[in-house]
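Pasting as-is:
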Amino acid sequence: MRIFRATAILLCLAIPVCGNAESPSAPENEHSIAYGTRAKPLERPGPRYPESQRRKGQEGWVVLSFVVGTDGLVHDPIIDDSSGVPAFERRALQMFEGWRYEPATWNGKPVEQAKTKTRIIFSLKSPQNSRGASEKFVRRERKFNRLLKSGDLEGAGELLNSTFQQSGWNLYETTRLWLASYRLHAAYADDENQLKSIRRASTGRQWVRPETAISILRVKLALEVRLTRIADALETYELIISEAPDLADSDPLVEAVKKIRDIVDGDPIIATEALIEKSAWQHILLRQKFSIDTVDGEIANVDIRCDWHRAKDGMSDIVKVWEIPASWGDCRLYVRGEEGTTFRLLELPNE
């Protein structure tokens, strides 16, 4: 069997998994599909704006994933990403205490809806008006550009860090800051941190000009292809052609995406190098079978969140293969453990 960017692994045990601000945007795929219905929101109050950030004039956003239980309550919310303000993250998590749903169903019976995501926007104005930069921000951005152009990367980094810490920035300015962070890491040729920064700029792309938004997505896709983040690259490509249909046939990365799709549909093992930061590492699963190896550190558990079911399992010294039933729908994987732990995820071909 061929392995895509990986070496062989002995699979010792196969285990089929089993079920064990402003008003937020609607969760993904909140609609009926064959054999099942998605959870329907009954009460979803927005979060309270943190007073500390209101006084500063700081705006931002938080993206969260969560499980809607058979009881209609929200369980185990996880922060997928944010604009970088901890106060917003805390308030977003507290918000779920007041949320209520009519549970999802499968064949008429309540089931857990585990692959659910929403974005919370903290804005002091309407999001449409949270555009434009203050004179203070423009002065700092121009100074950053001068330092970067002159090759003073240390000075540019210090200025960028102090600007983030000063706060008081609107949604447009926050997006510009993450673009500046991307440019700084590009100057260092640091692909991983380039991708982290451009992802955050991508989440805030609605507050920049449309042509800038598409450029952000194209850079994000190029980095994901280069770093073989296959599932993320496919998702970004779909965003590009939905927001700029004229690029569907002309974009130079179309051929690269085609090759990636060939890999997904083929028989090589797909290997992804992973690093646990904060509490969890997350990944969109491309296949229904996967394993984990070359662990350096400690993994507490794996959390598989799918459209119609959820499963959690611990790690052991025995190498496992998890196999997800097709009826569970699309799935996202969360791996929790000690911060700094590295490992390799192997997605195996379906037999």
